[in-house]
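User: Can you predict the 3D structure for this chain?
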Amino acid sequence: MRRGSMQYWHKRRAQTRLPRLRNQSGGIDTGSMGNMIAFKVATGHVAMINDMNPAAKQQEVNRACTLLEAPPMLVYGIRLYSKDPLTGYRTVSKEILDKASVQKLGIKKIKTDESKIPEIKQKLSEFIDVTALLVTYPKGVASGQHHPNRFESPIGGKSMEEKFTAITQKLGKEAGLQDFFKPGEYVDVASITKGKGWQGVIKRFGVARVSHKATQKIRHVGTLGPFKPGKVLYSVPHAGQTGFNYRIEQNKRILKIGSKADSDSINPSSGFLNYGLVRNNFIIIDGSVPGPSKRLVRIRKSVTNINVKGIKEPKINDVMF
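Assistant: Here is the predicted structure, written as structure tokens:
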């Protein structure tokens, strides 16, 4: 008997290490950005005053947590979208790029730079959305990566004018954690799970071992299906790639956001196992995060939990890693 959900079929390796996001939250504050990039450091637990479970309200509880390091992020461009009759959204080819920021990325041809912002601002009625183009430089991060990671993030605002004004003020500047999230806010975490290579059906699908009296094999599938139809269905367990899959975990609460100056308070004397020392801003998230240490993680504002009751900052007594 096979086990495991067919929701994630087929089980293949992720194409890139940067997780993709196909949708975004609608509850982004004006001037704030919707998603960011961090690196997984380690797991631990925090001692905090419980403000979620009514059974242990106002009591100190220990909860599992994950530490993420956020490298410096720079807003290097603006992307505009127009309406498309077929797909709904269509990217405008002329992106507004900051000259000083783009030179580090090796982009030589700049069709539109920051000097064209007043001209485009008068034509905002032709567009339906605007997003920010960001890049992270993992210099000083113990993740082992040395190449910049470019990604796109929506920006909050009630109208196109508000979004465009907020994003032009950030163009060419470094974006801090305060531009993305707040302590106590609920977020979704996208990452690539641990890769386990080629595995058999027992590890891959949880198939039961065959009795040693039944066949000459034990760790294999007992039957591939009926005689008719004379084919093997795709739902029959087979050996293959296991792990290194793209996954999103929803509604993770941010317990703490720390600055670069606070990193010494969480660093062990010898550094984190399989990672090293945290030298940048960091985030502590409630629960686990997919992937091993040094894995690239993408955090977005929660799609289902939009903090309608307000954001309550948790009270943390101690952090242990």
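The mean pLDDT is 87. Residues 160-170 form the longest helix (11 residues).
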